[in-house]
Design brief:
This protein is mainly alpha-helical. It has one domain. Helices cover 78% and strands 0% of the residues. It contains 21 helices and no strands. Helix 5 packs across helix 12. The chain is globular and about 70 Å long. The complex comprises the extracytoplasmic solute receptor protein and the two transmembrane proteins. It is a multi-pass membrane protein. Part of the tripartite ATP-independent periplasmic (TRAP) transport system. Its main location: membrane.
Length: 426
Protein backbone atom coordinates (compact mmCIF):
# COMPACT_ATOMS: atom_id res chain seq x y z
CA UNK A 1 0.00 0.00 0.00
CA UNK A 2 2.84 2.38 0.88
CA UNK A 3 4.57 1.75 -2.45
CA UNK A 4 1.25 2.30 -4.29
CA UNK A 5 0.74 5.66 -2.56
CA UNK A 6 4.35 6.69 -3.28
CA UNK A 7 4.11 5.86 -6.99
CA UNK A 8 0.52 7.04 -7.33
CA UNK A 9 1.25 10.48 -5.83
CA UNK A 10 4.43 10.94 -7.88
CA UNK A 11 3.10 9.72 -11.23
CA UNK A 12 -0.30 11.33 -10.68
CA UNK A 13 1.22 14.75 -10.04
CA UNK A 14 3.49 14.40 -13.08
CA UNK A 15 0.55 13.31 -15.25
CA UNK A 16 -1.27 16.50 -14.25
CA UNK A 17 1.68 18.52 -15.52
CA UNK A 18 3.05 19.46 -12.11
CA UNK A 19 6.82 20.22 -12.32
CA UNK A 20 8.94 17.31 -11.08
CA UNK A 21 10.29 19.18 -8.04
CA UNK A 22 6.78 19.96 -6.81
CA UNK A 23 5.70 16.38 -7.67
CA UNK A 24 8.44 15.13 -5.35
CA UNK A 25 7.22 17.42 -2.57
CA UNK A 26 3.63 16.23 -3.15
CA UNK A 27 4.82 12.62 -3.04
CA UNK A 28 6.58 13.18 0.30
CA UNK A 29 3.56 15.00 1.73
CA UNK A 30 1.22 12.18 0.59
CA UNK A 31 3.38 9.59 2.35
CA UNK A 32 3.41 11.72 5.52
CA UNK A 33 -0.38 12.03 5.38
CA UNK A 34 -0.77 8.27 4.83
CA UNK A 35 1.44 7.50 7.85
CA UNK A 36 -0.49 10.02 9.97
CA UNK A 37 2.59 12.14 10.64
CA UNK A 38 2.02 15.18 8.45
CA UNK A 39 3.93 18.18 9.77
CA UNK A 40 4.67 21.26 7.66
CA UNK A 41 7.76 22.00 9.78
CA UNK A 42 9.30 18.59 8.98
CA UNK A 43 8.49 19.18 5.31
CA UNK A 44 10.25 22.57 5.33
CA UNK A 45 13.17 21.31 7.41
CA UNK A 46 13.93 18.42 5.07
CA UNK A 47 13.61 20.66 2.02
CA UNK A 48 16.17 23.09 3.42
CA UNK A 49 18.45 20.28 4.55
CA UNK A 50 18.38 18.77 1.06
CA UNK A 51 20.20 21.73 -0.43
CA UNK A 52 22.46 22.32 2.59
CA UNK A 53 25.39 20.27 1.30
CA UNK A 54 28.95 21.46 0.70
CA UNK A 55 29.68 18.98 -2.16
CA UNK A 56 26.68 20.39 -4.06
CA UNK A 57 28.54 23.69 -4.37
CA UNK A 58 30.36 21.96 -7.22
CA UNK A 59 27.21 22.13 -9.36
CA UNK A 60 27.04 25.93 -9.95
CA UNK A 61 30.77 26.15 -10.61
CA UNK A 62 30.82 23.28 -13.12
CA UNK A 63 27.79 24.82 -14.83
CA UNK A 64 29.58 28.18 -14.95
CA UNK A 65 32.75 26.54 -16.33
CA UNK A 66 30.67 25.03 -19.14
CA UNK A 67 29.04 28.37 -20.01
CA UNK A 68 32.40 30.16 -20.04
CA UNK A 69 34.01 27.38 -22.08
CA UNK A 70 31.42 27.73 -24.84
CA UNK A 71 31.42 31.53 -24.89
CA UNK A 72 35.16 32.01 -24.45
CA UNK A 73 36.43 30.02 -27.43
CA UNK A 74 37.66 26.89 -25.62
CA UNK A 75 35.10 24.63 -27.32
CA UNK A 76 35.89 26.01 -30.79
CA UNK A 77 39.62 25.46 -30.36
CA UNK A 78 39.07 21.88 -29.21
CA UNK A 79 36.96 21.20 -32.32
CA UNK A 80 39.61 22.79 -34.57
CA UNK A 81 42.34 20.65 -32.99
CA UNK A 82 40.31 17.46 -33.49
CA UNK A 83 39.65 18.57 -37.08
CA UNK A 84 43.35 18.73 -37.92
CA UNK A 85 43.87 15.22 -36.48
CA UNK A 86 41.04 13.21 -38.08
CA UNK A 87 39.15 15.57 -40.38
CA UNK A 88 40.76 14.07 -43.49
CA UNK A 89 39.55 10.45 -43.08
CA UNK A 90 36.25 9.06 -44.42
CA UNK A 91 33.51 10.27 -42.08
CA UNK A 92 36.09 12.58 -40.52
CA UNK A 93 33.67 15.17 -39.12
CA UNK A 94 31.91 12.45 -37.12
CA UNK A 95 35.21 11.41 -35.54
CA UNK A 96 35.92 15.08 -34.85
CA UNK A 97 32.60 15.27 -32.99
CA UNK A 98 33.44 12.21 -30.87
CA UNK A 99 36.95 13.44 -30.02
CA UNK A 100 35.70 16.94 -29.23
CA UNK A 101 32.91 15.54 -27.03
CA UNK A 102 35.38 13.46 -24.99
CA UNK A 103 37.72 16.42 -24.47
CA UNK A 104 34.88 18.83 -23.69
CA UNK A 105 33.39 16.27 -21.27
CA UNK A 106 36.50 16.71 -19.14
CA UNK A 107 35.86 20.45 -18.97
CA UNK A 108 32.18 20.98 -18.17
CA UNK A 109 30.46 17.82 -16.84
CA UNK A 110 27.18 18.90 -18.43
CA UNK A 111 25.68 16.94 -21.34
CA UNK A 112 23.34 19.77 -22.30
CA UNK A 113 26.18 22.34 -22.44
CA UNK A 114 28.30 20.04 -24.61
CA UNK A 115 25.34 19.19 -26.85
CA UNK A 116 24.64 22.87 -27.48
CA UNK A 117 28.28 23.59 -28.31
CA UNK A 118 28.73 20.58 -30.61
CA UNK A 119 25.43 21.18 -32.43
CA UNK A 120 26.28 24.85 -33.00
CA UNK A 121 29.85 24.22 -34.16
CA UNK A 122 29.72 20.93 -36.06
CA UNK A 123 26.18 20.25 -37.30
CA UNK A 124 26.24 23.04 -39.95
CA UNK A 125 29.68 21.84 -41.13
CA UNK A 126 28.46 18.24 -41.40
CA UNK A 127 25.34 19.31 -43.25
CA UNK A 128 27.32 21.38 -45.77
CA UNK A 129 29.75 18.49 -46.32
CA UNK A 130 26.86 16.21 -47.33
CA UNK A 131 26.46 14.03 -44.23
CA UNK A 132 23.00 12.75 -43.41
CA UNK A 133 21.62 15.42 -41.09
CA UNK A 134 19.57 13.07 -38.88
CA UNK A 135 22.50 10.69 -38.41
CA UNK A 136 24.89 13.58 -37.68
CA UNK A 137 22.51 15.05 -35.10
CA UNK A 138 22.10 11.61 -33.53
CA UNK A 139 25.87 11.12 -33.29
CA UNK A 140 26.43 14.52 -31.65
CA UNK A 141 23.59 13.83 -29.20
CA UNK A 142 25.05 10.45 -28.22
CA UNK A 143 28.57 11.90 -27.94
CA UNK A 144 27.35 14.66 -25.62
CA UNK A 145 26.16 12.23 -22.94
CA UNK A 146 29.78 11.22 -22.28
CA UNK A 147 30.00 14.49 -20.29
CA UNK A 148 28.27 13.15 -17.13
CA UNK A 149 30.62 10.14 -17.06
CA UNK A 150 34.14 11.48 -17.64
CA UNK A 151 35.18 13.72 -14.72
CA UNK A 152 34.23 16.32 -13.75
CA UNK A 153 30.62 15.14 -13.68
CA UNK A 154 27.59 16.88 -12.22
CA UNK A 155 25.77 13.52 -12.21
CA UNK A 156 28.45 11.96 -10.01
CA UNK A 157 28.25 14.91 -7.62
CA UNK A 158 24.48 14.52 -7.22
CA UNK A 159 24.71 10.73 -6.87
CA UNK A 160 27.64 10.96 -4.44
CA UNK A 161 25.66 13.28 -2.18
CA UNK A 162 22.46 11.22 -2.41
CA UNK A 163 24.22 7.86 -1.85
CA UNK A 164 26.94 9.06 0.53
CA UNK A 165 29.65 7.70 -1.80
CA UNK A 166 33.07 9.29 -2.39
CA UNK A 167 32.74 11.72 -5.31
CA UNK A 168 36.50 11.60 -5.96
CA UNK A 169 36.36 7.79 -6.35
CA UNK A 170 33.37 8.12 -8.69
CA UNK A 171 35.29 10.65 -10.78
CA UNK A 172 38.31 8.35 -11.11
CA UNK A 173 36.10 5.32 -11.88
CA UNK A 174 34.29 7.16 -14.70
CA UNK A 175 37.33 7.78 -16.90
CA UNK A 176 37.67 4.40 -18.66
CA UNK A 177 33.89 3.72 -19.02
CA UNK A 178 33.53 7.18 -20.61
CA UNK A 179 36.29 6.36 -23.10
CA UNK A 180 34.65 2.99 -23.81
CA UNK A 181 31.39 4.75 -24.70
CA UNK A 182 33.36 7.02 -27.04
CA UNK A 183 34.98 3.95 -28.64
CA UNK A 184 31.54 2.38 -29.16
CA UNK A 185 30.41 5.53 -30.98
CA UNK A 186 33.60 5.50 -33.05
CA UNK A 187 32.98 1.90 -34.24
CA UNK A 188 29.28 2.53 -34.88
CA UNK A 189 30.01 5.68 -36.92
CA UNK A 190 32.68 3.81 -38.92
CA UNK A 191 30.16 1.07 -39.73
CA UNK A 192 27.45 3.53 -40.81
CA UNK A 193 29.62 5.73 -43.06
CA UNK A 194 31.97 3.10 -44.49
CA UNK A 195 30.19 3.12 -47.87
CA UNK A 196 29.44 6.84 -48.11
CA UNK A 197 31.23 8.77 -50.84
CA UNK A 198 31.52 12.13 -49.12
CA UNK A 199 34.73 13.90 -50.06
CA UNK A 200 36.79 14.32 -46.87
CA UNK A 201 38.67 17.50 -46.02
CA UNK A 202 42.32 17.64 -47.12
CA UNK A 203 44.84 16.27 -44.65
CA UNK A 204 46.23 18.96 -42.35
CA UNK A 205 49.97 19.51 -42.53
CA UNK A 206 52.17 18.88 -39.52
CA UNK A 207 52.53 22.65 -39.13
CA UNK A 208 48.72 23.07 -39.06
CA UNK A 209 48.37 20.30 -36.45
CA UNK A 210 51.02 21.91 -34.25
CA UNK A 211 49.42 25.34 -34.68
CA UNK A 212 45.97 24.05 -33.67
CA UNK A 213 47.53 22.17 -30.74
CA UNK A 214 49.28 25.32 -29.59
CA UNK A 215 46.04 27.27 -29.94
CA UNK A 216 44.10 24.66 -27.92
CA UNK A 217 46.79 23.98 -25.29
CA UNK A 218 45.23 26.12 -22.56
CA UNK A 219 41.88 24.39 -23.09
CA UNK A 220 43.48 20.92 -23.04
CA UNK A 221 45.41 21.65 -19.83
CA UNK A 222 42.25 22.09 -17.75
CA UNK A 223 41.21 18.40 -17.57
CA UNK A 224 44.79 17.48 -16.65
CA UNK A 225 44.72 19.99 -13.78
CA UNK A 226 41.38 18.65 -12.51
CA UNK A 227 42.24 14.93 -12.73
CA UNK A 228 45.78 15.26 -11.34
CA UNK A 229 44.57 17.55 -8.55
CA UNK A 230 41.87 15.08 -7.53
CA UNK A 231 44.14 12.02 -7.73
CA UNK A 232 46.84 13.54 -5.52
CA UNK A 233 44.42 15.19 -3.09
CA UNK A 234 45.37 18.75 -3.98
CA UNK A 235 41.70 19.73 -3.90
CA UNK A 236 38.26 18.21 -3.34
CA UNK A 237 35.69 17.82 -6.17
CA UNK A 238 33.98 21.01 -4.98
CA UNK A 239 37.26 22.92 -5.05
CA UNK A 240 38.00 21.37 -8.46
CA UNK A 241 34.79 22.96 -9.76
CA UNK A 242 35.95 26.38 -8.57
CA UNK A 243 39.39 25.82 -10.14
CA UNK A 244 37.73 24.87 -13.44
CA UNK A 245 35.48 27.95 -13.48
CA UNK A 246 38.26 30.39 -12.52
CA UNK A 247 40.72 28.82 -14.99
CA UNK A 248 38.17 28.94 -17.85
CA UNK A 249 37.39 32.56 -16.99
CA UNK A 250 41.09 33.51 -16.93
CA UNK A 251 41.86 31.78 -20.24
CA UNK A 252 38.77 33.23 -21.97
CA UNK A 253 39.35 36.84 -20.85
CA UNK A 254 43.13 37.20 -20.52
CA UNK A 255 44.68 34.67 -22.93
CA UNK A 256 42.12 34.10 -25.71
CA UNK A 257 40.46 37.51 -25.10
CA UNK A 258 37.19 36.32 -26.65
CA UNK A 259 35.04 36.86 -23.57
CA UNK A 260 34.10 40.43 -22.77
CA UNK A 261 33.28 41.59 -19.27
CA UNK A 262 29.88 42.73 -20.53
CA UNK A 263 29.03 39.07 -21.31
CA UNK A 264 29.74 37.82 -17.81
CA UNK A 265 26.40 38.82 -16.32
CA UNK A 266 24.54 36.75 -18.93
CA UNK A 267 26.78 33.74 -18.33
CA UNK A 268 26.40 33.98 -14.56
CA UNK A 269 22.63 34.28 -14.95
CA UNK A 270 22.42 31.24 -17.26
CA UNK A 271 24.52 29.14 -14.86
CA UNK A 272 22.46 30.36 -11.89
CA UNK A 273 19.15 29.47 -13.58
CA UNK A 274 20.27 25.92 -14.37
CA UNK A 275 21.76 25.52 -10.88
CA UNK A 276 18.53 26.73 -9.27
CA UNK A 277 16.55 24.04 -11.10
CA UNK A 278 18.98 21.30 -10.02
CA UNK A 279 19.22 22.50 -6.42
CA UNK A 280 15.45 22.79 -6.01
CA UNK A 281 15.12 19.23 -7.35
CA UNK A 282 17.70 18.05 -4.81
CA UNK A 283 15.96 19.90 -1.98
CA UNK A 284 12.53 18.55 -2.92
CA UNK A 285 13.88 15.02 -3.34
CA UNK A 286 15.20 15.05 0.22
CA UNK A 287 11.61 15.06 1.49
CA UNK A 288 10.76 11.98 -0.57
CA UNK A 289 14.07 10.30 0.35
CA UNK A 290 13.41 10.85 4.06
CA UNK A 291 9.89 9.52 3.79
CA UNK A 292 11.10 6.51 1.75
CA UNK A 293 13.41 5.67 4.66
CA UNK A 294 10.77 6.26 7.35
CA UNK A 295 8.19 4.19 5.43
CA UNK A 296 10.77 1.37 5.16
CA UNK A 297 10.28 1.08 1.39
CA UNK A 298 13.89 -0.08 0.73
CA UNK A 299 13.42 -2.96 3.17
CA UNK A 300 10.22 -3.96 1.38
CA UNK A 301 12.01 -3.89 -1.97
CA UNK A 302 14.94 -5.86 -0.55
CA UNK A 303 12.45 -8.50 0.59
CA UNK A 304 10.94 -8.66 -2.91
CA UNK A 305 14.38 -8.99 -4.53
CA UNK A 306 15.71 -11.35 -1.83
CA UNK A 307 16.13 -14.27 -4.28
CA UNK A 308 18.49 -12.13 -6.40
CA UNK A 309 20.80 -10.93 -3.61
CA UNK A 310 23.06 -13.96 -4.11
CA UNK A 311 23.17 -13.32 -7.87
CA UNK A 312 24.54 -9.78 -8.16
CA UNK A 313 24.81 -9.78 -11.97
CA UNK A 314 21.15 -10.72 -12.40
CA UNK A 315 20.22 -8.12 -9.77
CA UNK A 316 22.22 -5.46 -11.65
CA UNK A 317 20.44 -6.37 -14.89
CA UNK A 318 17.06 -5.91 -13.17
CA UNK A 319 18.12 -2.55 -11.68
CA UNK A 320 19.50 -1.35 -15.03
CA UNK A 321 16.27 -2.28 -16.85
CA UNK A 322 14.17 -0.45 -14.24
CA UNK A 323 16.42 2.61 -14.58
CA UNK A 324 16.16 2.44 -18.39
CA UNK A 325 12.36 2.44 -18.21
CA UNK A 326 12.29 5.36 -15.76
CA UNK A 327 14.83 7.24 -17.91
CA UNK A 328 12.46 7.27 -20.87
CA UNK A 329 10.00 9.42 -18.92
CA UNK A 330 12.19 11.42 -16.53
CA UNK A 331 15.26 13.62 -16.70
CA UNK A 332 18.61 12.58 -15.24
CA UNK A 333 18.71 14.52 -11.96
CA UNK A 334 15.24 13.56 -10.65
CA UNK A 335 15.84 9.92 -11.66
CA UNK A 336 19.06 9.88 -9.62
CA UNK A 337 17.38 11.52 -6.65
CA UNK A 338 14.32 9.25 -6.66
CA UNK A 339 15.97 5.88 -7.32
CA UNK A 340 19.23 6.23 -5.35
CA UNK A 341 17.68 5.93 -1.85
CA UNK A 342 15.62 2.97 -3.10
CA UNK A 343 18.46 1.05 -4.78
CA UNK A 344 21.41 1.70 -2.46
CA UNK A 345 20.21 -0.55 0.43
CA UNK A 346 19.67 -3.37 -2.11
CA UNK A 347 23.11 -2.82 -3.64
CA UNK A 348 24.76 -2.92 -0.22
CA UNK A 349 22.80 -5.99 0.83
CA UNK A 350 24.00 -7.80 -2.32
CA UNK A 351 27.62 -6.82 -1.63
CA UNK A 352 27.97 -4.79 -4.85
CA UNK A 353 30.68 -2.11 -4.84
CA UNK A 354 28.82 1.25 -4.44
CA UNK A 355 31.32 3.06 -6.71
CA UNK A 356 30.89 0.43 -9.44
CA UNK A 357 27.11 0.67 -9.09
CA UNK A 358 27.29 4.46 -9.18
CA UNK A 359 29.22 4.45 -12.47
CA UNK A 360 26.74 2.13 -14.19
CA UNK A 361 23.77 3.95 -12.70
CA UNK A 362 25.02 7.31 -14.02
CA UNK A 363 25.84 5.80 -17.44
CA UNK A 364 22.27 4.50 -17.61
CA UNK A 365 20.85 7.87 -16.60
CA UNK A 366 23.11 9.65 -19.09
CA UNK A 367 21.85 7.46 -21.93
CA UNK A 368 18.36 8.36 -20.71
CA UNK A 369 19.11 11.92 -21.86
CA UNK A 370 18.94 10.67 -25.48
CA UNK A 371 16.04 8.26 -24.92
CA UNK A 372 12.73 9.47 -26.38
CA UNK A 373 10.20 10.78 -25.61
CA UNK A 374 11.77 13.09 -22.97
CA UNK A 375 15.45 13.13 -24.09
CA UNK A 376 16.70 16.53 -22.90
CA UNK A 377 19.84 16.32 -25.05
CA UNK A 378 17.78 15.41 -28.12
CA UNK A 379 15.69 18.55 -27.58
CA UNK A 380 18.84 20.65 -27.19
CA UNK A 381 20.43 19.38 -30.41
CA UNK A 382 17.15 19.73 -32.29
CA UNK A 383 16.74 23.33 -31.11
CA UNK A 384 20.32 24.51 -31.60
CA UNK A 385 20.87 22.59 -34.85
CA UNK A 386 17.45 23.51 -36.29
CA UNK A 387 16.57 19.85 -36.90
CA UNK A 388 13.20 18.26 -36.21
CA UNK A 389 12.88 16.12 -33.10
CA UNK A 390 11.80 13.17 -35.26
CA UNK A 391 15.00 13.37 -37.31
CA UNK A 392 17.24 13.50 -34.24
CA UNK A 393 15.37 10.59 -32.65
CA UNK A 394 15.72 8.55 -35.85
CA UNK A 395 19.43 9.32 -36.10
CA UNK A 396 20.33 8.55 -32.49
CA UNK A 397 19.05 4.94 -32.35
CA UNK A 398 22.16 3.04 -33.58
CA UNK A 399 24.42 5.05 -31.25
CA UNK A 400 22.10 4.63 -28.27
CA UNK A 401 21.96 0.85 -28.83
CA UNK A 402 25.79 0.74 -28.98
CA UNK A 403 26.07 2.62 -25.68
CA UNK A 404 23.53 0.37 -23.97
CA UNK A 405 25.53 -2.63 -25.26
CA UNK A 406 28.67 -1.24 -23.61
CA UNK A 407 26.77 -0.62 -20.37
CA UNK A 408 25.50 -4.21 -20.19
CA UNK A 409 29.00 -5.44 -21.05
CA UNK A 410 30.12 -3.69 -17.85
CA UNK A 411 27.25 -5.34 -15.96
CA UNK A 412 28.40 -8.83 -17.01
CA UNK A 413 32.11 -8.01 -16.61
CA UNK A 414 32.42 -5.69 -13.57
CA UNK A 415 36.24 -5.73 -13.80
CA UNK A 416 35.94 -3.40 -16.82
CA UNK A 417 35.00 -0.70 -14.32
CA UNK A 418 36.55 -1.85 -11.04
CA UNK A 419 40.11 -2.60 -12.25
CA UNK A 420 40.72 0.75 -14.04
CA UNK A 421 39.10 2.56 -11.10
CA UNK A 422 41.76 1.06 -8.82
CA UNK A 423 44.52 2.13 -11.23
CA UNK A 424 43.44 5.76 -11.14
CA UNK A 425 42.52 5.79 -7.45
CA UNK A 426 45.75 4.06 -6.44
Amino acid sequence: MTIAIFLGALLGAMALGVPIAFSLLACGAALMWHMDMFDAQILAQNTLEGANSFPLLAVPFFMLAGEIMNAGGLSRRIVNFAMTLVGHVRGGLGYVGIMAAIIMASLSGSAVADAAALAALLLPMMSRAGYDKARSAGLLSAASIIAPIIPPSIGFVVFGVAANVSISKLFMAGIVPGLMLGAALWVTWWWLVRKEKIEPAPRASRAEVLTSLKDATFALVLPVIVIVGLKFGVFTPTEAAVVAAVYALFVSTVIYKELKLSQLYGLFEAAARTTAVIMFLVAAAMVSAWMITVANLPAELVAVLQPLLDRPIVLMVVIMVITMLVGTAMDMTPTILILTPVFMPIVKAAGIDPVYFGVLFIINNAIGLITPPVGTVLSTVAGVGKVSMDEVTKGVWPFMVAQFAVMFLMVFFPSLVIVPARWFAG
